[in-house]
Design goal:
Blueprint lengths: L5 H10 L3 H10 L1 H4 L4 H10 L5 H17 L6 H15 L11 H12 L3 H4 L3
Helix pairs in contact: 1-2, 1-4, 2-5, 4-5, 5-6
Length: 123
């Protein structure tokens, strides 16, 4: 029997309206999701209902890290939008569960990508 990858698991759970399980999979498989195709992550983001803020946080973080890790300067405007969206979601989320809080994530971004001035200038 073939096991579904993280994206396929989340999409299936969203289709079944099993939102809490989709969030759990996203959090538990965050490292795997960071290696997923950008377009697959965007598709999951589009499928995520407004009530799944924590799922959106995971996906936005994956998208942002992809842009910054690849130093894809043409996509920095998208990355800036993702970070702004994460700031908006932060106001709605009280419990990040196993994830770093938004402020902890921003510290991580500054430590790892603080020298990418063209990105930070967009904020």
């Amino acid at each position: 029997m073939t096991r579904l990858n993280a994206i396929d698991q989340i999409e299936l759970l969203l289709a079944l309206q099993q939102y809490e399980q989709a969030i759990d999979v996203a959090i538990d498989q965050f490292e795997d999701l960071k290696g997923c195709y950008y377009n697959h992550l965007l598709r999951v983001l589009e499928q995520s209902p407004e009530t799944c803020g924590l799922l959106k946080v995971v996906i936005y973080r994956c998208l942002l890290l992809d842009v910054l890790d690849r130093a894809y300067t043409k996509a920095y405007t998208y990355g800036a939008r993702y970070l702004k969206a994460l700031s908006v979601l932060d106001a709605e989320i009280n419990d990040y569960q196993k994830l770093d809080t938004h402020s902890e994530f921003e510290v991580y971004l500054n430590e790892r990508h603080g020298r990418k001035r063209s990105f930070w200038a967009l904020l």
